[in-house]
Amino acid sequence: MKRVVFLVDMNAFFISCETTRRPELAGIPAAVAGDPKMRSGIILAANYDARKYGVKTTMTLGEAKKLCPDIVLVPPDHSFYEEKSKQVMQLLSGYTPVIEQASIDEAWLDMTGCEAILGSPRTAAERIMKDIRGKLGLWCSIGISENKFLSKMASGMKKPLGITELWVHDVPAKLWPLNVRAMYGIGKKTAQLLAKINIRTIGELAAMDPAILSEKLGKMAFEIHQRANGIDDTPVTPHSPDEMKSIGRSTTLPRDITDLKEAKKVIMELSEDIAMSARRHRKKGRTVQIT
Q1: Structural domain boundaries, residue 192
Q2: Cβ neighbours, 10 Å, residue 279
Q3: Which positions are catalytic?
Q4: How far apart, in Å, do the first and last CA atoms of the chain sit?
Q5: How far apart are CA 291 and CA 285, in angstroms?
Q6: pLDDT per residue as tens digits for the range 78-137
Q7: 128 and 180 share a domain?
Q8: Cβ atoms within 10 A of the Cβ of 77, count?
Q9: pLDDT at residue 245, as a whole number
Q10: Is residue 138 part of a domain?
């Protein structure tokens, strides 16, 4: 039986969550940002009305205001976004029990064998998108393929509210012409290394001799060469608390801080949150890392 894997990616998740409780944000440029009152911090999520002006995630508030003076800025409420994320995952679990949450706003679904109940993959994706929008007031894009890598790539090809199929037989036409930086798993440094051996597109990466790649990239060479050829056999694996190998917490501060006492307070709050999770799941730590 042919595998069918979806990647459901929520569109502009943080600001979309805010719009569900502040409908007046719909249709106007808006973003979740650091501290709007102090006019400091960065953009965490901009809606598509703001993106039309060039506003992007991680942009400073000053830069965003220059591009879009009328943008409405909303302070972040991460506990609210976590709750909305749980609602999304709960809704998705009604379509398949095999769900792997990749982040707060995206998840892989193994939809293999669901055609008899839900219809074709596209029909099922349309139903999921309509369900999320109708019940939760949120937008999403969905990538459809035989594997996790291709479904991830497909999910980013049409936003917002896009459904894209990217099957293995589509790879030469749809994937290979793209720049290697567009490939999931390849960052700036890897792209620079590839450029040194004249690899700038995913197609050029797919055609390269794996032995030459291995000399330049080491262990990761085999995996990215396989991905460039549309090959990914990794299963969609639901996570359970017992599987956790690390517990981490992060926060976005409304402004830069230089006072050590203030920094210690933030670290203590994050540490206590981590400790509560560790106690709840009966885990012990050996290494503490601060980045």
Answers
A1: 171-228
A2: 10
A3: 106
A4: 44
A5: 17
A6: 999 999 999 999 999 999 999 999 999 999 999 999 998 999 999 999 999 999 999 999
A7: no
A8: 15
A9: 61
A10: yes
Instruction: Tell me the CATH number at 175.
Output: 1.10.150.20
Instruction: Report the amino acid identity of residue 115.
Output: E
Report yes or no on 253 lying in a domain: yes
pLDDT in tens, 27-86: 999 999 976 555 557 899 999 999 999 999 989 899 999 999 999 999 999 999 999 999
Cα 181 → chain centroid: 16
SS (H, E, C) the chain: CCCCEEEEEECCHHHHHHHHHCHHHCCCCEEEEEECCCCEEEEEEECHHHHCCCCCCCCEHHHHHHHCCCCEEECCCHHHHHHHHHHHHHHHCCCCCCEEEEECCEEEEECCCCHHHHCCHHHHHHHHHHHHHHHHCCCEEEEEECCHHHHHHHHCCCCCCCEEECCHHHHHHHHCCCEHHHCCCCCHHHHHHHHCCCCCEHHHHHHCCHHHHHHHHCCHHHHHHHHHCCCCCCCCCCCCHHHCCCCCCCCCCCCCCCCHHHHHHHHHHHHHHHHHHHHHCCCCCCCCCCC
Number of domains in the chain: 4
Q: Looking at the structure, tell me whether residues 10 and 109 fall in a common domain.
A: yes
Cis peptide leading into residue 69 (ω within 30°)? no
- For residue 63, give the nearest of 76, 74, 50 by alpha carbon: 50
In a domain, 50, yes or no: yes
pTM of the full structure: 0.82
Q: In this structure, is residue 286 part of a structural domain?
A: no
